[in-house]
Amino acid sequence: MLTSIKERSRARSEDARHGPNQGALRQTLQVILAGGTPDVSMLDAEDRALVAPLLDRLQSLTDIKVDAEGMAERLDLYENHSGVGLWDAVLYNGDAFDERSSWAWSNEIRRQLGYTSERDFPNTVEAWSEKLHPDDAQAAEDAFVAHLADRTGKTPYDVTYRLKVRSGEYRWFRDAGNAKRDANGVATRASGSLNDIHEIKTAQDRLAEYADICETRLKAMADTIAHESRGLSDTATNLVHTADTTRDSCVSASDELSKSSSNLETVASAAEEMSGSIQEVAHQAGDTQARTNEADTASQDARQRVSELAAAAEDVAKTLEVIKQIADQTNLLALNATIEAARAGEAGKGFAVVASEVKSLAQQSAKAADEIAGKLTVMRDATESSVGRMEGVTKLIGQVSELVTSVSAAVQEQSAASQEIARNISEAAASTDSVTGNVAAIQHDAQGLTDAGRQVGEASGTLQDQASALASEVDTLIANIRHQGSR
């Protein structure tokens, strides 16, 4: 069309030999060729009719250009700045894994996986499939293949799985998409989005774990409440029984207290008499202790005298030994004198008689000394025996003294205790009337306790109903928590 206009313009210029509209038309065509919007007011009607289709086509091209620029800008935003990882696959014969199928991964997907360009994460299906977690790979691929194979398009593709990111760790992602199909239902193209949901998935897992913990603990608490409420019901029954028993016992106790009041007065009188008797025993124990002390002193003196006698006997024994030695010497001298008198003959006869007498006296003296020594030995043995026995007596008297002292102290304590018992019994007798009044009050309170026990039993039944309701509420709460965690 533009060529036709140029030819016609050239012809008209030859005919008009450079008429006045030639420059306006040329200028208009130059503006159109430059892609601008010309001013057609200077053109005649025929030229405007020729230029009008060009202006309409130029406006369409301008609109298409604007739309293309906007689409390119949106596509750049979607791919690089939307925060959503987009992917696209043109399928060969509906097979996503055929080598003739072409794939395109957005830069946002690469960024989520830790990559920066197509160089380190190429536009191939293997770039995705090789990074699937071993436990998730088969399920993810099967879900994608099932979506593409269903020619009705009713099988959705929306799965979660783990992908290995560039750092080497596995993170959770959600992958969702749809396929475009031909007239026979064969998938020709598939597009979708891949988003990092690791924090959400981790939080959901923690929420599920928390739900399990809450379920265990809350159900345990509900069971405990139910158990305790049943125990409370049993306790209430026992309480009512105990209260009835207490009331009956109070009636019997009141009668017994009336009898005890009279008995306590009798016991108080007997206690006072016993206290007087114990005081008399205490006085006699004091006198006994005094006599024991005197006996102990006397035994100490006797022991001293016997000891002195034993010492004197030892001295006499020593003196007798000297006497015996002198008698032996004398006997020896008399023997020598007799021998010498025999040698002297007649002249020594008189001296021999004297020597014989001296010898006889010496023998008598030695015999007497032996007899005295024997007596002293007997006396010394008796003395030593007496000393030992006196020591035994002294020890026994000391033990008796200690025993009497202990008895005296115990009697004094018993005396004080008996006086305290008498006082307490008197006070108990005085308090019996007050106790009788208190027993009557207890009897009244026991009736109130019976009523309270029945109320507790009713409250226990209500508590059991509430425990059942709580268990139902716990089930509902846990179900809601798990539902929220799975969303």
Automatic annotation (TrEMBL):
<dbReference type="GO" id="GO:0006935">
    <property type="term" value="P:chemotaxis"/>
</dbReference>
<feature type="region of interest" description="Disordered">
    <location>
        <begin position="1"/>
        <end position="22"/>
    </location>
</feature>
<dbReference type="GO" id="GO:0004888">
    <property type="term" value="F:transmembrane signaling receptor activity"/>
</dbReference>
<dbReference type="Pfam" id="PF00015">
    <property type="entry name" value="MCPsignal"/>
</dbReference>
<dbReference type="InterPro" id="IPR004090">
    <property type="entry name" value="Chemotax_Me-accpt_rcpt"/>
</dbReference>
<dbReference type="InterPro" id="IPR000014">
    <property type="entry name" value="PAS"/>
</dbReference>
<feature type="compositionally biased region" description="Basic and acidic residues">
    <location>
        <begin position="1"/>
        <end position="18"/>
    </location>
</feature>
<dbReference type="GO" id="GO:0007165">
    <property type="term" value="P:signal transduction"/>
</dbReference>
<comment type="similarity">
    <text>Belongs to the methyl-accepting chemotaxis (MCP) protein family.</text>
</comment>
<feature type="domain" description="PAC">
    <location>
        <begin position="157"/>
        <end position="209"/>
    </location>
</feature>
<feature type="domain" description="Methyl-accepting transducer">
    <location>
        <begin position="228"/>
        <end position="450"/>
    </location>
</feature>
<dbReference type="InterPro" id="IPR035965">
    <property type="entry name" value="PAS-like_dom_sf"/>
</dbReference>
<dbReference type="Pfam" id="PF08447">
    <property type="entry name" value="PAS_3"/>
</dbReference>
<dbReference type="InterPro" id="IPR004089">
    <property type="entry name" value="MCPsignal_dom"/>
</dbReference>
<protein>
    <submittedName>
        <fullName>Methyl-accepting chemotaxis sensory transducer with Pas/Pac sensor</fullName>
    </submittedName>
</protein>
<keyword id="KW-0807">Transducer</keyword>
<dbReference type="GO" id="GO:0016020">
    <property type="term" value="C:membrane"/>
</dbReference>
<dbReference type="InterPro" id="IPR000700">
    <property type="entry name" value="PAS-assoc_C"/>
</dbReference>
<dbReference type="InterPro" id="IPR013655">
    <property type="entry name" value="PAS_fold_3"/>
</dbReference>
